[in-house]
Amino acid sequence: MALCSIRAASALAMLTVAVFASPFALHAEPLKPTLAEVTAVQDVLRFRSETIADPAKAFRAFAASGGRSQLDAIAKEMETAGSGTAGWRYLLGTSVFTVAGLNAKRTLVTFYNPWVDTALITVWEAQRSGRRIVEAEWVPGDLVRQANAEIDPLPLWLRGEKYRPAALADAVVDTVKAIETRFAEPQIATWRDTLGIKDGRTYHRLIAPIVAHRLYETQMRLKALAVPMQGEDPKLMPLRTAVAGLIKTARTEGFKTLLAEAKDTTAPMGAALAKINPYTMRYLAPVAFVAGDGHATVFLASSATADFALSARFAERVSGYALQQIEYIPYAAAYQATINQATR
């Protein structure tokens, strides 16, 4: 498996980046991709970026009639819950994706968003005009990880008392491993059976609204941090200021100055962060946050790629919020480390 980046300098570079940057199952040799593989990955990346920009236009361009009607149904559920087209931007803009059956006639591409613990599953079929989405559905991560699972209203990374950055990485790793196991190439044709959602009407009546509501709640929580509102919690403004300062510094100077403030950052993590080129942080933005008594942790990611997340823990002070610790969470490395440990 590998993680896919949105940006690449060329078709070959794009596939090479995909192999090393995101949890995706690509079966060819990383440095010797076939033309079909390059084209398939390009199509997926274009669908993702164009859906973020204009969902309706992207559906017309990348989906056959059946797939388009299913994507439209999801869009309607988003609209009913209150998300509108912004729901697609958040769902896909902060997702990693996996691929099964890249060289087969039908390819299963799963976009997994850990923040809302939701997967958008798409089936692509080779047609005369190129690969097109012929089936699509969005499902809670619980059903992706386990058959007949009980659906928890909370995303996986927010459950229990686990350290949140670790919980986030674990959620990505556990879900990607489940996709790799349960939806490998031989099972592509029966993916709805595997998920237990063959009865589409019942699913969209009982389960899909839960997914839509979870997405909307996540967006509204993030909006509270990003957009000042009358009558808001007075703690939000100083936190907003602290986050804006972190983003500006990371984009322009990198992390060395920030690390001098974030003294709880471990030495190995600090050494890794200090080497990051600030140019790679130019699209950094908050994607989620959790707050407690006297502290807050804000998660950030790049709008150009979903390869990684940053966690910034702040402590509340009289003068505002002081940065205490920074964590860099590279999804592919977390996944590979887990796989390596399991095979020892």
Task: Give the helix/strand layout.
Layout: H1 11-21, H2 35-53, H3 55-62, H4 65-81, H5 86-93, E1 96-100, E2 106-113, E3 118-127, E4 130-140, H6 141-145, H7 164-182, H8 191-195, H9 200-206, H10 208-226, H11 236-252, H12 256-261, H13 267-274, E5 284-292, E6 295-302, E7 305-317, E8 320-330, H14 331-342
Helix pairs in contact: 1-2, 2-3, 2-5, 3-4, 4-10, 7-14
How many β-strand stretches?
A: 8
Rounded mean pLDDT score: 87
- How are the strands of the largest sheet arranged? 1-2-3-4
Quote the beta fraction: 15-25%
Largest sheet: 4 strands, antiparallel
Return residue spans where pLDDT drops below 50 for at least 5 consecutive residues.
Answer: 1-31
Helix content: 40-55%
Net shape: globular
Would you tell me the structural class of the helices and strands? alpha+beta
Order of helices and strands: HHHHHEEEEHHHHHHHHEEEEH
N- to C-terminal separation?
18 Å
Please supply descriptive tags for the structure shown above.
344 residues, alpha+beta, four-stranded antiparallel sheet, 14 helices, 47% helix, disordered N terminus
